[in-house]
Design brief:
It is built from 11 helices and 9 strands. By secondary structure, it is α+β, with helices and mostly antiparallel strands.
Length: 393
Amino acid sequence: MVTDTRRVVAPGDLLGIDHLLDAEERAIRDTTRQFADDHLRPYVADWFERGVFPVELARQLGQMGLLGMHLDGYECPGTSATSYGLACAEIEAVDSGLRSFVSVQGSLAMASIHRYGSEEQKSHWLPRMAAGELIGCFGLTEPDHGSDPAGMRTFARRDGTDWVLRGTKMWITNGSIADVAIVWAQTDDGVRGFIVPTATPGFSAASIPRKLSMRASVTAELVLDDVRLPADAVLPEARGLSGPLGSLNEARFGIVCGVVGAARDCLDAATSYAMSRHQFGRPIGAFQLTQAKLADMAVELGKAQLLALHLSRAKDAGTLTPTMVSVGKLNNVREALQIARTCRTILAGSGITTEYSPLRHANNLESVLTYEGTVEVHQLTIGRALTGENAFV
């Protein structure tokens, strides 16, 4: 007698990657997944449709230890980069906008202070930011200068012992809900970073309306109209573009890992739908063309999972390079977006509503594809590493 030993495998489990994680990493992943399922997933479609980010989530995320979780000291959790990446995937499995909040708070605003700030700045800001009591943003991109930050026009001039900032920043996540902004500006001594409390006179932020993407996230324009700051507002260890670019690599790492969660969620939704939707007397998941789509997407998801885990281990070992991050960002976002789009085709008409996640993920991933380094920027970064030739100029 022949026994049928077939079993159904979840898309994210196809390659059996779980055994590559240790017990603590699995526990952090599973705890974050449970939090996301209980406190985020039931409400995210409504947040997306209404275009809101509930500010009270900041404290909940802080209580969960998800803000600046891979930073050491100053009441930060101090987990491994691998654990942080796994947590990003679980948050982004719900929505990229929610993961963006976590990334901007921890890997841009907090990490800039942690890496470049004075002891006094770290002690003053980081504990309350880790707790979600204070929200941060990161002001680098300008209306006319995105991929070329060296051309930024925001300028900080000395006036006695003070600094006076003037300029505009654009597409700033958390901008209009932030308590503190890390602002990068040209000075007579090159690019410098500044800690700007948003209550400072001359600082204003306006949310960008009518977004078709990242709707459960706050995106804003910052205006600095002669914002006067004391001498100790400058980040003392950041000089030149290496400062903001170093912070961007921190955030890009979170993206590499996070979008794996979005892709997994899309594939879970499409697979479940394919087995419950019947046409011609059988589930559409029983047809060859649907199975071919599912198989191809599951293979790409597995490859993205392995790439994210490899880069996580490299980051923990101190061997992660900016070029490696570019490989991860380019591949994983591009593949996650294609998975989201293909999953929507399996859902057909049902896929255009917020009842199902793939089209919402696809809309979000259109932004993730181009923020913190466009496809072209990462292609040229990789090309430069392969040829030794700089094609940016």
